[in-house]
Write a structure and sequence with these properties.
The protein has about 280 residues and is mostly beta strands. About 5% of the residues lie in helices and about 35% in strands. The protein has two helices and 16 strands.
Length: about 280
């Protein structure tokens, strides 16, 4: 989980990158002139104390529903959830800096609970805010980002949008990983980026946006930093036959379409809903 500032190693790596003045990497977009490319900016993204995130909605969320913020499970203010741990309806008073399209901070949003968080099978945290989508839209003119309810597509053009750094990274979905293992955690069907999404410390929790649809398809979470195998900050890939490979310098995200079936009326997490496959407590 090198993509947050949780832990000394993450802090050191992030500061080294920042000191080097690395410019945002930009990957080549598909040359097909028939492909519609959606302009991606910072509107709806947020900065956390140690990570990035975004105000998100499902296709069925309503204007008067309490707004939700998506980030990583390893970005929780209470620390990393243990392998197998699932957190639901945990009180929280966390605050988030809301960004407009240019990356300017326009408001501070507040949560009243962690609706859901885990680092088992996936790496997500979902906070429920004290404001509704309609209130945020009325006060700041900013809409939530919408989660795609379909599996992402290999080869599609994506942008990783970091509210913490106010930076974007453009690349493509290189493929999908059967199992991604890092220290004691294992994630299923993770997204592997092409190399130009060379995300750094602080980009954990950034929404991964499909540039054709403008929909969120994943949440940025880790990468292999030092070429080690299955250690913290050095995830390894495990295929269906148990074969282990590593890709130093390559980064990953966790798919978000699996969240959609688990959010019911009033934007409440309901793990008993049909089609909900998120881990249960």
């Amino acid at each position: 989980m090198k993509k947050s500032f949780v832990g000394t190693l993450g802090v050191v790596c992030a500061l080294l990158f920042a000191a080097a003045g690395t410019a945002p990497a930009v990957g080549a977009r598909p040359a097909d002139s028939t492909t519609t490319v959606t302009a991606v900016d910072f509107a709806g993204t947020v900065a956390l104390s140690n990570c990035s995130g975004s105000v998100i909605r499902t296709p069925n969320s309503q204007p008067d529903d309490p707004a939700l913020v998506l980030s990583n499970g390893h970005c929780l203010e209470t620390g990393f959830p243990a392998a197998g741990e699932v957190i639901t309806d945990q009180p929280s008073s966390r605050s988030f800096s809301l960004l407009d399209g240019s990356g300017s901070e326009v408001a501070t949003l507040s949560a009243d609970k962690v609706s859901y968080a885990t680092m088992t099978d996936t790496d997500i945290s979902i906070y429920e805010l004290t404001q509704t989508y309609a209130q945020i839209q009325s006060a700041y003119g900013i809409s939530a980002l919408t989660l795609n309810d379909q599996h992402p597509v290999a080869g599609s053009s994506i942008e990783v949008v970091s509210g913490y750094w106010k930076r974007t990274y453009n690349c493509n979905v290189d493929g999908f990983v059967y199992r991604l293992k890092e220290a004691g955690w294992t994630w299923k069907d993770s997204v592997r980026y092409t190399p130009s999404c060379n995300t750094i410390g602080g980009t954990s929790g950034s929404p991964v946006i499909d540039t054709t649809t403008g929909l969120v398809v994943a949440v940025n979470n880790t990468g292999n930093e030092n070429g080690e195998t299955c250690t913290e900050n050095n995830p390894c890939e495990v295929d269906e036959n148990g074969n282990v490979t590593i890709h130093q310098g390559i980064n990953y995200a966790e798919e978000t379409y699996i969240i959609v079936p688990c959010i019911g009326a009033g934007n409440k997490i309901d793990l008993s809903l049909p089609g909900c496959s998120l881990p249960k407590p």
